[in-house]
Design a protein that fits this description.
5 helices, Nucleotidyltransferase, domain 5, 16% strand, alpha+beta, two-stranded antiparallel sheet
Length: 186
């Protein structure tokens, strides 16, 4: 729905928390990394030490090399045709895709909402216990605070959106029916 065709994920190796950014073109990867880097540095007060990625052209630009050199970020590139060298990210990508596909097909929703489904999958996975983390959630490991999950809803369930008085006449309904397609970090 948003017109995006790609996504890039960043995974914190310590907490396994995942951030997903949607893009219309792969060339936006550098901008998304800069956005992520700024966010992490402001939130944690720490700097990114290493960036592991495949040898995709979007990660091998002069902009990436220069930024990493200036920021003191160690670049770890996998050997071509050896995705197992970046197993955590490869497995996470597969999990996101499978979860998004299952959510859309279970409710016969159009594939045009793949980005919303993928974003929801990441949001929920960040709030689910992980064996590697000693049954803590990635969110809890990253922030130190156990996440509240009372607001979680089933993807695709019916929702009602309030229509303010200023946007309707006296006899029009005060709400519209919709479909729940995800969460916002804000």
């Amino acid at each position: 729905m948003s017109g995006c065709l790609y996504y890039v994920i960043f995974i914190d190796d310590y907490s396994r928390k995942t951030w997903i950014y949607f893009m219309k073109a792969k060339s936006e990867t550098f901008d998304k990394f800069q956005e992520f880097k700024t966010f992490i540095e402001k939130q944690t007060g720490s700097h990114i030490r290493a960036l592991r990625s495949d040898n995709g052209g979007e990660f091998d630009s002069h902009h990436f090399k220069d930024l990493c050199r200036e920021a003191g970020i160690k670049r770890e590139l996998t050997v071509p045709y050896n995705p197992q060298q970046n197993g955590v990210a490869e497995r996470k990508n597969r999990t996101i895709c499978e979860a998004a596909k299952a959510m859309m097909h279970d409710l016969d929703l159009p594939t045009s909402i793949w980005a919303e489904a993928a974003g929801t999958a990441v949001y929920v996975q960040n709030r689910c216990p992980h064996f590697i983390l000693g049954d803590k959630t990635p969110e809890e490991k990253f922030t130190g605070v156990k996440p509240d999950v009372e607001h979680l809803r089933i993807f695709g369930c019916p929702v009602y959106i309030h229509v303010p008085k200023e946007k309707r006449s006296k006899m029009e309904p005060s709400g519209k029916k919709g479909i729940f397609v995800g969460y916002s970090e804000t």
